[in-house]
Design goal:
The chain has helices spanning 3-27, 31-55. By secondary structure, it is mainly α. Helix 1 (3-27) packs antiparallel against helix 2 (31-55). The protein starts with a helix and ends in an 8-residue tail after the last helix.
């Protein structure tokens, strides 16, 4: 697999994990735990966006 493909796959995994964390946050009854999970999900989402950019070479595929 190419480096771009590996980065894209990793970014996709990170997005899935972030989504799972968001769902767990919605189910959490403790407000502090809910906030912690949401923050972790937000960081993962940002990180996956960076991974996605690195995997695509940072270029717009439509160009």
């Amino acid at each position: 697999m190419s480096v771009a493909g590996e980065s894209g796959g990793r970014a996709q995994q990170m997005r899935r994990k972030a989504q799972e964390l968001e769902q767990a946050a919605e189910r959490a009854t403790d407000p502090q735990e809910r906030q912690r999970l949401k923050e972790k999900a937000r960081r993962l989402t940002e990180q996956s966006a960076q991974e996605g950019k690195a995997g695509s070479g940072g270029q717009d595929p439509m160009m």
